[in-house]
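QA checklist item 7 of 12: single-chain prediction sanity check.
[x] sequence parsed
[x] length recorded as 370
[x] structure emitted
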Amino acid sequence: MSLLPRPKVKNLKVCPHGGINYAELSAMGIAPEAVLDFSVCTNPFMPPPRIKKMLLGDVAIGQYPDSGATELRQRLSEKLGIPSDNILAGSGTTELIRLIALAYFRQGDGILILEPTYGEYEVASQIVEAKLIKQWMRAEDNFTPRINETIDLIRQHHPRAIFICNPNNPTGKYLSREEVESVLAVIGDGLLILDEAYLAFVDQSWASLDLISQGNAVILRSMTKDYALTGLRLGYAIAHQEITDNLRLVLPPWNVNVIAQKAGAMVLEDDDYLEQSKPRIREAKQFLINGLSRLGFQLLPSDANYFLAKVGNARAFCTTLLRHGIQVRDCTSFGLPEYIRIAPRTMPECRRLIDTLKAIMNKGELDASI
């Protein structure tokens, strides 16, 4: 008989993610390179061309990477105007979420999550056997958070931590500074994890970095979304130095590979390239909104680049579309089985999505309750 893991590990719920499922495509006889992927919310106009040249150049893959990601953190320090000791680099924000849980959550601790949201908050909490407290948003409110209720839950349960995804994934709802500060004001000695992975795609964002001075806030940001480095896995946490020092104690050595560190440091010099991509993303998003609305889809307002569309049976909808070489995000795993999430790609690719939907709807192949 094989050695069994802890019961909680055995019962962990796997969190599905966007992106291509290679086993699924293989079973369907579809080549991955033949699929247009609208299920991931990354910048379709990045990375800058010189990053691709760097990948073909002289990168020291025969050496261990710098465990402290010193150059990358220094570049971030200069860009953000905060000390490098307040920055911790990670292999994507998901690694940092699990590190926070490992370092700060205890068995039985209450962890408040505003649902629907990114599923890894729940997974990280379950790994350390913390207790989940969920506040569900309502469809009739377009899944807009009710912060007064959030504050009531904090006062009632005194959670060890609260996760706020801002803008939220998958709804795209973006909380104001006043709303986030009102949560921070009542959390006491609890921890606020403010996940800003998609902040770059919010048109009118507010500066959050000064929140770390209060000593119980961690801000998470992703470089894989902004700069399209998804395959390299790169993100960072910003917090009071006492928190980053504690997180470093449980950080695996060499957690960010040499190519990711090099690419991350380089793209920070290409802010102009990033800014130039934003109007193109807005244009593509608006094109998709107009096209889907004309086809009769009910779309939810979003402050980010991605948005939700109500389609009836999301799983069947996604499967049908995938047979035609297009992938969108089935939101069943978010607890939204009637919705899909779409993020814009280039304009020619967006036109292909709309044209494909028109064609298969005209043929009666797509049974979408819209």
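[x] summary fact logged: The chain has two domains: 7-46+271-362, 63-267.
[ ] second reviewer sign-off
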